[in-house]
Amino acid sequence: MSGYVEAGYSVVLVALGGYSISVVVRERAARRRLPAKLPGRSADRTGEDGGGSR
Amino acid sequence: MLRDAALVCGKDLRIEMRSRVTLNQVVPFAAVVMLLFGLALGPDRRVLVPAASGLFWVAVLFSSVLAVQRSFALESADDAREGLRLSGLDPAGVFLGKAGAVLAELVVLEVLLAMAMALLYGAHLAGVPVLAASAVLASLGLAAVGILYGAAASGLRVRETLLPLLFLPVVAPVLLAATKAWNLALAGTPDRADGWLSVLGVFAVLYLAIGTVAFGSLMEDR
Amino acid sequence: MTAVAEALSQPEGSISALSETSGRAALALRVTGTLAVVGVVATAWLGLFVTPNDVNMGDLVRLLYIHPPMAWVAFVAYGIASLSSLLYLWPRTRHPRFDRMAGASAETGVVFTGLTLVTGSIWGRPTWGVWWTWDPLLTTTALLFVLYLGYLALRRVPGDSEAVAKRAAVASLVAFVDVPIVYFSVSWWRSLHQAPTVDLTGRHLYVHGSMAWTLLLGFVSFTLVYAWLVGHRYRLSTLRQREADECLTAAVAERQQEGQS
After folding, report:
1. pLDDT band at C117 (very low <50, low <70, confident <90, very high)
2. CA-CA to C87 of 20 to 30 Å: which in B17, B131, B147, B194?
3. Reported pTM
4. CA dihedral in degrees (A43, A44, A48, A52; nearest 10)?
5. Closest approach of chain C CAs to the CA of A54, in angstroms?
6. What chains are in contact with A, requiring at least 3 Cβ pairs below 8 Å?
């Protein structure tokens, strides 16, 4: 193979993977911060798991 | 709406007549840009003359950013913006008025700059009706987009850096069409510029329409 | 797509919205994500190892399975972003969820536009011998990229959330209207130049059999990736907004208590 094909596939993999991870990480962080800010009212929400990611 | 537009336009132009900021700062800036292009491309007329209209319009684009920033600097001083909102003027009228004032300033700037272009680059000004028509239509489009984005960015702390980033990609078709129209006119074939004039016209009409409809929601609350 | 629709249909502002989103919508999102990963892996496997080399292009034809899907997703993303912005600007349908949707879709669109440009460039270099050519499609895509970079920069400016949303919606509308004008004027500009043009359509590429299926799978899987990303990005904005709201409420409540004691 010429190297161009590999480069193309890797760029897509790295970019989409990186972006996905950043979104999921930011979402988890936001979700963790949220109940902590609200003592007393967070009881009904502690049961759910961290997020809908894979 | 048109009466409000005339009021706002007159107010902005009156301020400009008294302060002369556009005339004393923006026009010299455009001249400096033209001079720098000349230095960058070298003294060869065979290079400068074909590039003249492109360089002219790039200089106009940069200057229109400054003109729009100036137009909203007027409103931010002494909370004039609140006054404008409280005055009960139709937002569409405010939009058209501010765009009209910027249009008038840009046309004056273009006349002066075209003379500088003829002087510095040795371009022979031919096909003046087409030059004038495309300049007015292009300036109308620039003013409409500029005022729309200027209003979106005004009052933000990052407006100086944000406005060019928002504004310049949108007006890329204006640069393209106006440059082509001027090239054709300067080359002595102004009758072939009709298509580019209509591109400029469509652009101006579309953005004036969007501005007239959407300016209200930018002014409403902040 | 179902995940996105589900997320959009959640009642806004209700405290239970979060747990509802992590119910059915989260399941749909998870299914979308799983399918997307499976689809992308299958596309890569078929594209890299199963499909045949092209007579004219050799193994470069394998870039066919990723580059057009990137461009397709980018345009879908901007279409959805513009539609959401319009719905936000229209007073009767004005709702923060459309603003969040526009932001999520535009951000994902910028990622895919960047990938369109990069993969196109990587494909162009061995095929035409240049990294870049002033083709109408390429030029329009590049302008789209910078237009929406500006849009995202505008969104990132902090401020009253409603004012931010309105500014962004107007900017999105302005950018969207620009796209056909840019495409039209650039293609006309190019057609007048007698420069050596690279024919993007006439690649003499005969797509057949396993190639067609792989290409189709590429389109479907990257669209699923888009749906999954937008779903999560949307939820992230919802969480951030709620965090900001609740911080404010909590702070106000604290101050009030201080005043009473």
Report:
1. very high
2. B147
3. 0.83
4. -120
5. 6
6. C
